Amino acid sequence: MSEKMLAAGSRDEFGERLVQKQQISQIISQTLNEKDFTAISTPLIERESTFEQYHRRNIFHLYDQIGENLVLRPDLTLPIARFLAANRRQSQVTQLYYIGDVFRQTDHLSGAYNQETQAGIELIGDATFNAEMQALDTMLNFAEQFGIAEVQVVLSDARWIDTILKQLTMSEQQRHGLKEAIEAKNLTAFEKLRETIPDFPETLKRWPLAFGEDGEDVMWQLQYIPAAKKIIDNWLRLAEFVHQYYPEVTVTVDLAASSPQPYYTGAIMRGFIPSLGRYLFSGGRYDRLLENFQNETLPAVGMGLDIETILKKWRMAPTDDITREPIIVVLGKGRIAKDAQKLLKLAGIDTSPLDKPERKLIFSSPDGVYRFILVKPTDVIKYLDRGIGDIGIVGSDTMAEQDQNHYDMLDLETGQATFVVAAPPKFNLNATQRKRIATKYPTVTTQYFSKRGEDVEIIKLEGSVELGPLTNLSDAIVDITETGNTLRENNLVIYDKVAKVSTHLIIRSGALLQFQTELKRVIENMMTILGEKQNENYPK
Ligand code: PRP
Where is the Aminoacyl-transfer RNA synthetases class-II family profile domain positioned along the sequence (predicted)? Predict the structure, then answer.
């Protein structure tokens, strides 16, 4: 029976939803045909080497009858680059467009789909800024055609972070670490590094949060740097253009944005839809696109249009636009719940409805601004990554086992525990025979033992892991310990410490733009109380 069912992560499309999707595709192709774009369709199956520079690891792999490594395409831009490298007519500006499906392996059984339809344009051969303007114009034109009025254009640039970091004196390692922390909006890592750099400019103190109004403030203050001014001038040109031709569209900057793909080289333009908390379009300049295929470089600007976003917007009831959604806080039940609640309260969120939860799982704050949902700790990330939750409070033990498609913003330094290898007293960690390790954390365990150069048999348990060696199900365990009581009472000894565990604040990426003012206030408050940890109210 199960063989005749859908594979996890896939779906059939039929009826009204499919008709609407077809209508969207028709509007896109008709409009672009009229604008003299050339349609291109590339195969679903490509050689693996086409995607060498692709940084997503979740590609579906196939083999043909002679053992050639093939993939289901995870992206449509790189196949177009492959096409151009082989079929390029010299010194000609080419305007291409595509509509097609891409495939990406999603987190297993997460409810995320692994096939999605993408549409996009590629303006090839134009090195001038006209290409950026034309690309943005085309996308905003589509927004108008699809009746989506509330677009916020968010501008960034692939060169921005490097340009600013170059101005500051620091080692290559510090520069690399800072860039990573800024792009991931990891405030804890950013703060730690920032403190090691003398004279770090006050203006950039909250760099990972420098988007929206704060981003604009910082931008004006950095104009004195010539290389930064060049980038800012480009943003201003784009903003002026938008204001002139699309007066309802707002424009802002993100000074902490990462490049959507490593091949980006210049301006990045995204269209955000606040009521959905997701993007309508995204793209920019990538002059290094062809490097993977031939020696010569070729200027290019490309934009992808998210057909799912258009569909979502079309299928929304008109009243959904006006009602302001509450901010959804996803809380893990159990070990860290009490402390998480205390922290949210200290950060200014009225958590009083959570005081007597009984069997209820969903609560609203008295002011209606927040909604709390209580879930199993291992499900917190799922709710965020599926676009339901906005803020999550979760242990780094849980995070270590799952894909991360959100911002890991703050280590709250509460709920502290340690990952350890533990076993009965006669165990020998350095013995050569293959060990059987019981754990709730197979990823952490695999990483730990492969770093030691050891291949172990992992036995996944859902709880009471200590029973593993006591019943001879396993030789040892990898588990977290807080007080050490459980280990002691079960006569288990710690053989090695694997990593520290603590509670983290995570935020869905779209939520940061959607609820900027409120979320920045909460984060700022949390940072202040973290700084005053000696405060007796701070949960340990
Ligand atoms: C965790 C962990 C240990 C215990 C350690 O279990 O798996 O069993 O806490 O804490 P201690 O060092 O303070 O004694 P949890 O309470 O999550 O229950 P479970 O093992 O049944 O999942």
Answer: 1-468
* C-alpha 333 – ligand 1 centre gap (Å): 14
Going by the DSSP 8-state scheme, the letter that residue 420 receives in this structure is E
Task: Please state which of the four CATH numbers 3.90.1570.10, 2.40.128.50, 3.40.190.10, 2.60.120.260 is assigned to the domain occupying 417-501.
Answer: 3.40.190.10
- Calculate how far, in angstroms, residue 413's C-alpha sits from the geometric centre of ligand 1: 18
Nearest CA to ligand 1 atom 2: 480
Please list the pLDDT of the chain residue by residue as tens digits (540 residues). Answer: 567 899 999 999 999 999 999 999 999 999 999 999 999 999 999 999 998 866 557 899 999 999 999 999 999 999 998 998 888 665 576 899 999 999 999 888 888 899 999 999 999 989 999 999 999 999 999 999 999 989 999 999 999 999 999 999 999 999 999 999 999 999 999 999 999 998 899 999 999 999 999 999 999 999 999 999 999 999 999 999 999 999 999 999 999 999 988 889 999 999 999 988 999 999 999 988 777 676 677 899 999 999 999 999 988 866 655 456 899 999 998 878 888 889 999 999 999 988 876 778 898 999 999 999 999 999 999 999 999 999 999 999 999 999 888 999 999 999 999 999 999 999 999 999 999 999 999 999 999 999 999 999 999 999 999 999 999 999 999 999 999 999 999 999 999 999 999 999 999 989 999 999 999 999 999 999 888 875 666 676
Q: What number does the ligand 1 atom closest to the CA of 483 have?
A: 13
Cβ atoms of 251 and 150 closer than 8 Å: no
Q: Whose CA is nearest to atom 18 of ligand 1?
A: 463
Q: Using CA positions, which residue lies closest to atom 16 of ligand 1?
A: 335
Q: Where are the domains of the chain?
A: 2-158+259-319, 160-246, 324-415+503-534, 417-501
Where is 457: in which H helix or E strand? strand 457-460
CA of 487 to the centre of ligand 1 (A): 9
CA of 481 to the centre of ligand 1 (A): 7
* Beta carbons of 354 and 372 less than 8 angstroms apart: yes
For ligand 1, whether the C-beta of 485 sits within 6 Å is yes
The domain at 2-158+259-319 falls in which architecture?
2-Layer Sandwich (3.30)
Q: Rounded to the nearest whole angstrom, what is the distance from the C-alpha of residue 89 to the centroid of ligand 1? A: 65
Confirm or reject: Cβ of 333 under 6 Å from ligand 1: no
**pTM to 2 decimal places:** 0.91
Nearest C-alpha to atom 4 of ligand 1 is from which residue?
A: 481
Burial of 98 (0-12, 13-18, 19+ CB in 10 A): buried
Ligand 1 contact, 494 CB (< 6 A):
no
Cβ–ligand 1 distance for 484 under 6 Å, the answer yes
116 lines ligand 1 (CB under 6 A): no
3-state helix, strand, coil in the chain (%, to 5): 35, 25, 40
Same fold, 2-158+259-319 and 417-501: no
**Closest listed residue to residue 99, CA positions, set 152, 42, 46, 172:** 42
Contacts of 11 (CB under 8 A, 6+ apart): 113, 115
Q: Does domain 324-415+503-534 have CATH number 3.30.70.1120?
A: no
The separation between the first and the last C-alpha atoms of the chain, rounded to the nearest angstrom, is: 51
